[in-house]
Amino acid sequence: MTRGDGSELSAYLALGRRLVDDALDRSLPPLGTPPPALHAAMRYTLLLPGKRLRGVLVLASCEMLKGDREDALPLAAAIEMVHAASLILDDLPSMDDATLRRGRPTLHKVAGEANAILAAVGLLNAAFGLVGGQVVDLESTGRRLELESLEYIHAHKTGALFIAATELGALAAGARERDVEALSRFAKNLGLAFQITDDLLDYSGNPETTGKDAGLDRDRTTFVNLCGIDGARRLAEELVAAAVAALEPFGKRASVLAGLAEMVRERDR
User: Fold this and answer.
1) For the whole model, what pTM was predicted?
2) Which of 41, 39, 130 is nearest to 86 (CA)?
3) 151 and 40 in contact (C-beta within 8 Å)?
4) Tens digits of residue pLDDT in 25-77
5) Closest CA to 133 of 152, 148, 146
6) Domains (ranges, CATH) in the chain?
7) Computed from CA positions of residues 114, 116, 119, 124, in that sequence, does the dihedral angle turn out positive or negative?
């Protein structure tokens, strides 16, 4: 598959989403399992329709290095569980106090704040880097940050899971250290680009399209209010280019990952 072949990339993403969704469904107790309220809350956010980008990154990284996709699926599910837990916590009244997530009411609106917190704890798995970034993010509310500090926050929030996703996929394939390092560089740049496009969508996106509240970051330093709209877009372009450049050692085998980077550049949700 070539980077320009959008139909094949779309087919790959659809298959990856389906595989990850099935793995997630199997990995949690079914509805009605005691305590039923907790398991219903855990399943609610985790199984909301989504891109499964982090899980697909695990699978694509593994397959690029000639690993077995089945070996990577549990790791893809784990990454998506950590991501879902972070979304639940991020949406809480004590955090962003969000009302929409993926076009549906946030978990604390549906199940109550206590069950939302318990569901997040139930899904969370060794995510200190993610939590550390959230702490700094909250401390920054109401004050202006420099670019270096802003990059730190999102390297330890959004970027942490992107890096973990590609590294886990590489490890599932028994990759060499240099391959893991190249994928880590790819993911670090892609994660920051993803956050910048997220900031742009928060500024100008339509909640009916993005599926989440707009303007929640107005009291925090974002890449948009630090660099301006045009500056943020240029920075995202540079980061996507750097991410794709990190894939050069893999040649055509990296076409799916390169396609994912282009998708981040153009996303509207």
Assistant:
1) 0.83
2) 130
3) no
4) 988 889 999 999 999 999 999 999 999 999 999 999 999 999 999 889 988 88
5) 152
6) 6-266 (1.10.600.10)
7) negative
